[in-house]
Design goal:
The chain has about 450 residues and is of the alpha+beta class. The protein has 13 helices and 16 strands. The strands form three sheets. Strands 13-10-12-11-15-16-14 form a seven-stranded antiparallel sheet, sandwiched between helices. Strands 5-6-9-7-8 form a five-stranded antiparallel sheet. It has a four-stranded mixed sheet with strand order 1-2-4-3. A hairpin with a 5-residue loop joins strand 15 and strand 16. The model has no long low-confidence stretch (mean pLDDT about 95). The structure holds flavin-adenine dinucleotide (FAD).
Length: about 450
């Protein structure tokens, strides 16, 4: 392939990997739905080398895929076999932490945890946080507009970005490295690249917004009898405690499965809902709040973690690693108005169990952000596959006007269902934007739209 020879000549032979030297990582993200390696992996070391790579690929009409930490859950970074993968892993490092403006300039291939640690070392706080923090890259986080556990207080990845550098399909470097909170000088182009999963350009650097550290966080586990009580608890926590930094609900089947497997027991009885609430309010305020919630019947039981180790135990149930061992496990990521999530969970469970009476179906998630995850494990019958489950989960969601993707993105897995969450006019405009920025369609083809 003369393109690979041109890339070797331009970037050096070590920047181009083929065959066995690529390893298995480029074949699939953590949805584990990819099984085809890319044609080659290119490892640029700078924005200029990303630009050279894209310009050569565009001229040759060869499709490319950006690959970050490969922790995505929507198949967005999975090759189809035709593409060259551009790995951002050598574009790594913090260029600057500016304590006066509370900003950080970071390269796209830097792992999220490294950015969090650099902010903390300067007495500041990067508010983005997800379970994959040690492996996912900032570039991947921004390309998927990641959510995570602090959205309720600080917003999604999009809200943490002030400026961005991206390389367009033809190799043009678009540097919008704004550092100000306020900048209304025309269109805010960075938003084209945030959440577009590598289909409109490759992110190479970003200016991230930092915050003062939130202070000491107290972790509570609350038990409630109904979903309505969970919502009432959310609103009461927001009004009485104010500083809520996490609100994560777990339906009984999810909580019990993981707690039992981890041999953890927090309450004498099982409850229909367990909720992790984290707040920076004082211990005294938290105790007064929990007593009032017990008196008013919003919760049936509660405990306050008395050590970091106990808080970690509570979070280990929410992280739910035991459930990942279930056969054919599918993890959905939908959003719908907070008040309707309980009803949707009941309707979705009923529809899935009607089709597969022995299936495992359980719910958990960032309910304070109107986002719920669904775990479904079942053995398929003849002519069935994962899309048989998708059809039910998204079919039940449609009348609620919810979104088929709250935070994980569309990738390949949800692409056939995008029309359920976006109008024909929205889809048409997305296609026009795509063809304006990437006329040859070389950027992550077959993904999102
Ligand atoms: C244990 C675990 C917990 C998770 N928790 C959460 C959570 O709470 N919230 C959440 O939102 N997600 C979560 N995720 C999903 C995943 O971690 C996020 O989607 C993350 O943002 C992906 O980052 P990445 O670097 O791994 O991207 P990748 O998987 O490598 O890529 C994701 C997409 O972004 C594109 N891309 C990657 N880098 C670039 C770039 N520099 N420029 C342009 N496009 C690029 C890829 O082409 C692909 O379409 C979790 C995953 C795991 C495994």
């Amino acid at each position: 392939m003369s393109l690979l020879e041109d890339l070797r000549a331009a970037l050096g032979p070590a920047a181009v990997l083929e065959g066995q030297e690529m390893g298995s990582k480029p074949a699939s993200d953590m949805s584990y739905t990819g099984n085809t390696p890319p044609r080659a992996v290119i490892r640029p070391r700078s924005t200029a080398e990303v630009a050279t790579t894209l310009s050569l690929c565009n001229a040759a009409g060869v499709p490319v895929i950006a690959q970050g930490g490969m922790t995505g859950l929507a198949g967005g970074a999975n090759p189809s076999g035709q593409e060259i993968a551009i790995s951002l892993d050598l574009l790594r490092g913090i260029e600057e932490v500016d304590t006066a403006s509370a900003t950080m300039v970071v390269k796209a291939g830097t792992p999220l945890e490294e950015c969090q640690q650099a902010a903390a070392a300067h007495g500041l706080f990067l508010a983005l946080d997800l379970g994959s923090r040690g492996s996912c890259h900032i570039g991947g986080n921004l390309s998927t507009n990641a959510g995570g556990i602090r959205v309720i207080r600080y917003g999604m990845a999009r809200e943490q970005v002030l400026g961005l550098e991206a390389v367009l399909a033809d190799g043009t470097v678009l540097s919008s490295m704004n550092r100000m909170l306020k900048n209304n000088a025309g269109y805010d182009l960075k938003h084209l690249f945030i959440g577009s999963e590598g289909t409109l350009g490759l992110i190479t650097r970003a200016v991230l917004r930092l915050h003062p550290p939130p202070g000491e966080i107290t972790t509570m586990l609350c038990a409630s009898a109904t979903y309505e009580e969970v919502v009432a608890l959310l609103r009461r926590a927001q009004s009485d405690l104010g500083n809520i930094v996490a609100f994560e609900a777990m339906w009984r089947d999810y909580f019990s499965f993981n707690a039992d497997a981890l041999k953890l027991r927090f309450f004498a009885a099982e409850h229909p809902f367990c909720v992790i609430v984290e707040s920076t309010a004082s211990r005294e305020a938290i105790e007064t709040f929990l007593a009032a919630c017990l008196d008013d019947g919003l919760i049936a039981d509660a405990l306050v973690a008395t050590s970091h180790a106990q808080a970690r135990q509570i979070w280990s149930v929410r992280e739910g690693h035991p459930i990942e061992a279930l056969p054919n496990l599918l993890n959905f990521d939908v959003s719908l108005p907070i008040g309707q999530i309980g009803h949707y969970a009941e309707a979705c469970t009923a529809a899935l169990l009607k089709r597969w009476p022995k299936a495992h179906v359980s719910f958990y998630g960032h309910v304070g952000d109107s986002n719920v995850h669904i775990c479904v494990s079942t053995l398929y019958g003849p002519g069935e596959d994962m899309h048989s489950v998708d059809d039910i989960v998204y079919g039940v969601l449609a009348p609620y006007h919810g979104s088929i993707s709250a935070e994980h993105g569309i990738g390949t897995l949800k692409r056939p269902y995008l029309h359920l969450s976006r109008s024909a006019e929205e889809l048409a405009l997305m296609r026009r934007v795509k063809s304006a920025l990437d006329p040859k369609g070389i950027l992550n083809p077959g993904k999102v739209i």
